[in-house]
Amino acid sequence: MTMPIIDNAKVLPKGQITIPKDIREQLSINVGDRLTLVCENDRLILMNSAMFAMKEFQKAMAGEAEKAGLHSDDDVVELIMKMRRGEEI
């Protein structure tokens, strides 16, 4: 487990803050990236929007492969082959 990075940021008049470099590096945040902010009670969670979207997608898709009868890589390959041949699924 990695140690948490704890740092401070000052809120500027327009509500802007500068995210410290070590935190930007940890979250892979680059110039122009979109960020997602989640407020839970007295906490603010800041994350890279691409990572947030991927995690939400993974949660939404949890269990769907099993429901579709996909239990192995071979099952996935067979499904792809059927789709390419235009077979009904």
Task: Give me the secondary-structure topology.
Blueprint lengths: L20 H6 L8 E6 L2 E6 H13 L2 H4 L5 H13 L4
Antiparallel strand pairs: 1-2
Describe this structure in words.
The chain has 4 helices and 2 strands. It is 40% helix and 13% strand. With 89 residues, the protein is α+β, with helices and mostly antiparallel strands. A two-stranded antiparallel sheet has the order 1-2. The longest helix has 13 residues. The mean pLDDT is 89. It has one domain.
Query: How do the helices and strands follow one another from N- to C-terminus?
Result: HEEHHH
- Counting structural domains, the number is 1
> DSSP helix count?
4
Number of strands: 2
Radius of gyration: 21 Å
Major β-sheet profile: 2 strands, antiparallel
- What is the molecular shape? elongated
Q: Overall pLDDT, averaged?
A: 89
Structural class determined from secondary elements = alpha+beta
Cα end-to-end separation:
43 Å
Spans of at least 5 consecutive residues whose pLDDT stays below 50 are none
- The helix content, as a percent range, equals 40-55%
Q: Which sequence of strands runs across the widest sheet?
A: 1-2
Strand content: 5-15%
